[in-house]
Specification:
9% strand; 6-stranded parallel beta sheet; hydrolase; 6 strands; 237 residues; alpha/beta
Length: 237
């Protein structure tokens, strides 16, 4: 096995245990309750958020994910939606925090990040940049980690691609002056995270909250829980 210099960690379902469907359902319900008094019909609101999310996933790199999302959302609801951006931000600061109740917590997540740093490895949070920084930093806190634990973390403000587009990972590598061969990608989603193998990264599939839409053979990847991950990392230093 090649020695590595950096570990890229996914967040949702990796460092932060969750049932993704339950989390999204809870998040959308709280968002709809927040925005209904301002005249946003819940079903149309949720469809617009999904549409904006899809637009970010298809981003060709010509604009930030943030701009792509609001361009789509504004196209649905008009200019008034852009005037309400501060209300959406306040949602992430307040009501969104309640979604923590449907997430788990595993102290081994923070220990795994800390282990990397103790071993002299660079740590990067490679979470799909579909959320603003305030929401990403909140979910980091729920997982027991903080921005200080990572040299870089992706948000919709600082990113122009999304998973599973390999350009998302290429952007991180360029930003951090790393080659794929110097990196280990740790994630729970076979499609979104393990594709980095094709770029030349090493991978580890965390199976605690596994997402395997195509029922791929997970034995193709080093895999397991946090104890296995920590042992795997030690072997790569």
């Amino acid at each position: 096995m090649r020695k590595i210099k950096a570990v890229l960690f996914d967040l949702d379902g990796t460092l932060l245990p969750m049932d993704q469907d339950l989390f999204v359902k809870t998040y959308f319900k709280k968002l709809a309750l927040k925005m209904a008094p301002l005249g946003y019909e819940p079903e149309k609101l949720i469809q617009a958020v999904w549409g904006g999310t899809s637009a970010m996933v298809q981003n060709d790199g010509s604009a930030s994910n943030e701009d792509v999302f609001w361009n789509f959302f504004g196209g649905v609801f008009g200019e008034r939606a852009l005037e309400d951006i501060p209300v959406f931000r306040s949602f992430y600061e307040v009501e969104f925090q309640e979604a923590r109740t449907v997430c788990g917590f595993n102290p081994q997540a923070a220990r795994s990040v800390r282990l990397c740093r103790e071993l002299g490895l660079r740590t990067i949070l490679a979470t799909n940049p579909l959320f603003p920084a305030v929401a990403t930093e909140s979910r980091m806190a729920w997982a027991g980690v903080s921005p200080a634990d990572f040299e870089y973390y992706t948000t919709y403000e600082n990113s122009v691609h999304c998973k599973p587009n390999p350009d998302y990972y290429r952007d991180i590598l360029a930003h951090c002056s790393l080659t794929p061969q110097e990196c280990l990608m740790v994630g729970n989603d076979v499609d979104e995270d393990m594709g980095t193998l094709d770029l030349g990264m090493q991978v580890f599939l965390l199976t605690d909250c596994l997402i395997n839409r195509r029922e791929a053979d997970v034995s193709l990847y080093p895999n397991g829980g946090f104890p296995e991950l920590q042992e795997h990392i030690r072997r790569l230093v």
